[in-house]
Amino acid sequence: MEKVNLIEGSVQETMLGPLWARAKFSKLYPEILDDQKAYEIIEKLEYDFSKVQEYLGEWRGIGLLVRAKNFDDALKKYIERFPNATIVNIGAGLDTTFFRVDNGKIRWYDLDLSDAIEFRRQYIPETNRCKYISKSALDYSWFDEIDFSHDEGIFLIAGGFIYYFQEKEISAFFNALAGNYPDGELIFDCISNLAIKVAHKRAKKAGVETPFWHIGIGNPIKKIAEWSEKIIVIDWYTMFSRTELNPKWNKKTVKMVKIAERFKTAKIVHVKFF
């Protein structure tokens, strides 16, 4: 076991939450997602995850599992079409998607801020086909570090990313991606304005005054069209719409999932650049 000492609220601590959720709930519900790598890492850590568990709870933890499953499904289909594709994981954190979808041929880049990448290196080594880039996603110089071929395909994933930025920043970012990766594809998750309002109200009660989420998306097709004529939505759906409710989940989880689906508070959006 490796003892982990982190500053409360630090970037590194927030990175452990999704990793813990995938490890815990993929062990319980492997039919949704089987994340052996996440479980392997968590098992090596001597760390008190009680606060993480208390904050996430079952329904948020399963939500992270389902988001990963939705991304995996899209990635696997893309890799079937483009077995030598280049994949860019934007805001990678301690994400372990590579290990679930790797076909032995793809080239992978994990992109995140320097402190996040430094922490990632401690638990997930870089390899010849899985390389790290220590930069902000909005520092477009990282484009120059991606080795890819248009003919072999390029696919980008951005989980838990866009709603932390202002809309003008993401609009400019998406346009930059479209200009640099024509025919490339991107999958990301987004939340509604209602979800942002509820989250900020909850945070304020906990003493957090500064808003941390900014972009709410209702109709993805309409919103993307406002941002660029070079991007088209090829698929979008609510977070849990392609995952069956499990009778083993607790009542609160089932209730929250039904509410989220009814009000479309969380969505997966898959776009293509032209």
Helix content, binned percent? 40-55%
> How would you name the CATH homologous superfamily?
Vaccinia Virus protein VP39
Class in CATH? Alpha Beta
Task: Give, in order, the helices and strands.
Answer: EHHEHEHEHEEHEHHEHE
Q: Give the overall average pLDDT.
A: 93
Largest sheet: spatial strand order: 5-4-3-6-7-9-8
Q: Helix count, per DSSP?
A: 9
Distance between the termini: 48 Å
How many domains comprise the coordinates?
1
The amount of beta strand, in percent, is 15-25%
Structural class by secondary-structure content: alpha/beta
List descriptors:
single chain; 274 residues; alpha/beta; Rossmann fold; 7-stranded mixed beta sheet; two-stranded parallel ribbon; 18% strand
Q: Could you characterize the architecture of this molecule?
A:
With 274 residues, the chain is an alpha/beta fold. Helix content is 44%, strand content 18%. The chain has helices at 11-28, 36-44, 50-81, 97-101, 114-121, 167-180, 193-205, 220-227, 251-263, and strands spanning 2-3, 45-46, 86-90, 107-112, 130-134, 154-158, 185-191, 231-238, 266-273. A seven-stranded mixed β-sheet has the order 5-4-3-6-7-9-8, with helices on both faces. Strands 1-2 form a two-stranded parallel ribbon. The radius of gyration is 18 Å and the shape is globular.
